[in-house]
């Protein structure tokens, strides 16, 4: 069993086909097939079932998937930590909430690349319900998320900063010039909300229910740009993190409503798995985040 074989196995599960995996890895398809055959012979089991043109993991393949992810994570940690060099090298897999990419994260990553030019960052958008298992499996090394406060025995929080949510509409929208808007004022107002898997939406729906307000959903999408464009065009009120709308507030295309209802407590938070080694590459990224947010580690 080799790291190359495990990498090929993971790429097949990721892409869903031997052909796509071979194209991504730059191997001939016969090479990919041979690597998996050798792995299956060594483990004395089938890893994939071929169902027509589709392939699915067998039960044994699903078991191997967990260990293969950990093995590749250990390989990345070895490359980051073992070579004696003033500049760490290797891959850092970062999971991030989309909202953090509008203003904060690009500046952080630019500075990180200046200080750690040999580190390759693989960036992946995450949701609150999937990232803990991805950290546990080794699919991610670090998560930078925007969410309500998260507590889990499996996770270690390395940073926490209070953030805010707001209601946004076109300056010409009827509610834009009202003072102290509350939950009952949102009755029959088209709400432009994030998707079902997002905690922001859930927080608002639960809050409105306390006041017997039935939400009128104008649109639901994880794409904040779409929510902002709908609001700009007077198609409703967008409920989004304040950090996402800074540019539109500055150019006057959106206005933050004067909200007088309940608060929605959210935080930018950084997590690793409790068993994860805090290496110099991760410590360097956290240090830069602290510098850019003027906060201390929680």
UniProtKB/TrEMBL annotation:
UniProt family annotation: Belongs to the LysR transcriptional regulatory family.
PROSITE patterns xrefs: HTH_LYSR
GO terms, molecular function: DNA-binding transcription factor activity; transcription cis-regulatory region binding
Organism lineage string: Bacteria, Bacillati, Bacillota, Clostridia, Lachnospirales
Keywords in alphabetical order: DNA-binding, Transcription, Transcription regulation
Alphabetized InterPro entries for the sequence: LysR_HTH_N, LysR_subst-bd, WH-like_DNA-bd_sf, WH_DNA-bd_sf
Record flagged with keyword Nucleotide-binding: no
Protein name (Swiss-Prot/TrEMBL): LysR family transcriptional regulator
Organism: Coprococcus hominis
Domain HTH lysR-type: from-to ranges: 1-58
